[in-house]
Amino acid sequence: KQDMLADNDQVTGAVIVELDTNELFHIRPVNADRSGGFADLGSYYAEGKKSAYAPEALVSGDWHVGETDQVVVKSKLELLSRLKINKLIVHDLFDGKSLNPHEREKLLLLAKRAQKGELDLDKELEMVARDLKIMGTATKEVVIVPSNHDEFLNRYLEAGEYVKHPYNHKAALRLAMDMLEDKNPLEEEMRRRGIKNNVKFLVRDESFKVGGVEVGQHGDRGQNGARASLKGLEESYGACIVGHGHSPKMERSAWMVGTSTHMNLGYNVGASSWLNTDALVYPNGNRQMLNYIQGRFTTRKL
What we know:
By secondary structure, the protein is an alpha/beta fold. Helices cover 27% and strands 21% of the residues. It has eight helices and 16 strands. The chain has a six-stranded mixed β-sheet, covered by helices on one side. α6 crosses α7. The mean pLDDT is 94.
């Protein structure tokens, strides 16, 4: 039994540390495959030799359209292009600021949002389409993982809350018709706004693997409807990369990426472990996390 556990849980790996300017530093893990080789930032190292080896996918920290840090986004898009990464995996694409169910009773906050035009659903959807068009030109395939913030929209439509919001009524009626026809309203709206088929919308519980690693689960739902934990997610999916928590973590073969947003979104008060962190997945299943510190994740020239 102990041999089996060791074979599954223990890996040969290392942590690369790079010292940057102004006392900044970058760290990223590397793990070896069964032949002893490892991948790092688009290169593969084995038996004293280095060769080009492009990651197959970049798993992005939670996106949250309208809240993304544009410095981080710029670095992310450059990374996709320079390493010729084929897939971008996106969690929490839609933020839902225009209809957030957790803010229904915060009337003064809603008043402030209204003054800024942030309660306009149609405007938020246009921002989503804008970002998807940018993503779609940076890589061959964009994969949208069903996430709790994306589903804020479904909850809004299901409850008929738009009836109380004349400023969103017209757009919501169109989306409600999609739900009546058992379609994903966010996907259907994006298609109407010109988003092409290289953007793939998964459905809940749909598996999507890259290099044998499950990347199609957001991480907000655990076993049998319980609250998710990395331990439970590993028991369910084995090697996987999820989002949701905004704080990068590793629990044996279950990894969690961070966020693509600014570090302060108003509701995360006190000490924070949030970090702008993505994960690279290589065709052979090698993985590594990248932390964007002031938009930089390495001192190397790619």
